[in-house]
Amino acid sequence: MGIYQDGVAIHQRGYGSANLEHSISITPSTVFHIASLSKQFTAVAAGLLAREGRISLDDPIRQYIPELPVHIAVTFRHIIHHTSGLRDQWDLLRLAGWRHEDIKKTDDILQLAVRQETLNFPSGARFQYINTGYTLIGIAVERITGLSLREYTSRFIFEPLGMSQTWFHDHYGEIVRNRAQAYSRDADSVIRINMPAYETVGPTGLFSTVEDFAQWEHNFIFPKVGDAEFIAQMLAPAKFDDGQPQQHGYGFGLVTGTYRGLETVEHAGGDAGYRSHYLRFPVERFAVAIFCNFSELKPGELARRIADICLSDRLSAPGSDFSNTPAWAGRAAGVSVLSADELEAKVGLYRDSITGMTCRIKIKGSRLVLIGNTDVEYELVGTGPERFQFSGIDAECIFETESKMVVRYAGQVAAACERIEDELPAPVALAPADYVGTYCSDELDAQYRIELSNQNLIMRRAKYPADTLERLAGDEFSTKGEGFHVRFVRDHVGKVDGLVLTTERVWNARFVRTSKQALVPTTNGR
Which CATH superfamily is domain 2-316 in? Predict the structure, then answer.
């Protein structure tokens, strides 16, 4: 934990263990992988190149990465502000059969991007938090400057600021002194090592310490890298291509908002067992950085608890400005604003009108929870009669009518959902065997098989265990384990000839049915 006032560290302390095997304690000089806090530095690298006139932020990134398909007319600005429409690299890798423990490299992600036949949505049309573009910025920086992103940022950002323990970690096997090992609890409640298995950088991959972050915070107040105008550009809210502003600004890898009446600038990070959060109050010139190595910790909430203490004389009453605040800001509310009957009225199955993805609202204890397709539960904390925030996450849930719900992430609409019946009838005279066969995707270079086991449809793919398909409605299913939304498509005579897979950040990945011959049914799913 690091606490900074006027760009100077006023309190730094480590808590817990950096390495359980060797009983090494965490200190302020412990090096952490800080995940998506990396994005602000990748965005600054692009901004510095634009400042020097070597690029324009409105240049199509394909100008520097020509192997990208023509239809990806995505600019640096689109990527920086998450309006690119690109499909997300981590979901693409998962769909393509990559496991968590497989080591992913930058070229693996580039090749997936090159094969993409479409975007999630037209660039500049909406907000969606996507990692892929930041990887592409890293590639572009190297091609423009002849320096890797690690070399460029070290030379032009970290070294000038004296951040000697901060760098983009672009080699998986590199030895790092004082590194914190990361941990998570498995399904059997056993704590195990959980480290990121990749050496790609841009959206993530930055290593740093809370000691070094004092120098970064100092640069926001007394700019040395860039100037006051450049810092203002970093924090300026983006606009969509039609000229409409984002409700909450996602600037250069930083989110602007308010907390209890005060302006905030912040970002969260999470990879494998690492969690991180950087929270600034620019007017008060106060900031907190918290880096963690256990996935159950919530550094965003901890940062706000620190602000509650240190800025107590300037903060307004808890819950006073939740309508204008990113959702992670509201842990102090915790106020029951709805009766049990009113909460019950929110319960049901909801489908996103754009992606087809489903989620379920349930009551757990005295609060609502949202359950995604992967069965992960998100606690919803009431902040108003029809508004709920995700505990510890920059998202909120707004019930616009009895049947319509909107999910916002960083203030932007991430999903527009409509309640559907829990039990929707299957098509008349439709046999599960109609779906059995082999399906292939050129975009993902992947093959999936649909099998029949005890009248249940089973999905198989390389490296992953078989997954059961559960029918939602008609030709629509969800996978029980991975949380994919699966929609089978038909030809002009009604025969199933393909399927479309959708995840949270990859929409409508198409597979063609290459074999319609029914496979031998199994009884044990193996």
Answer: DD-peptidase/beta-lactamase superfamily (3.40.710.10)
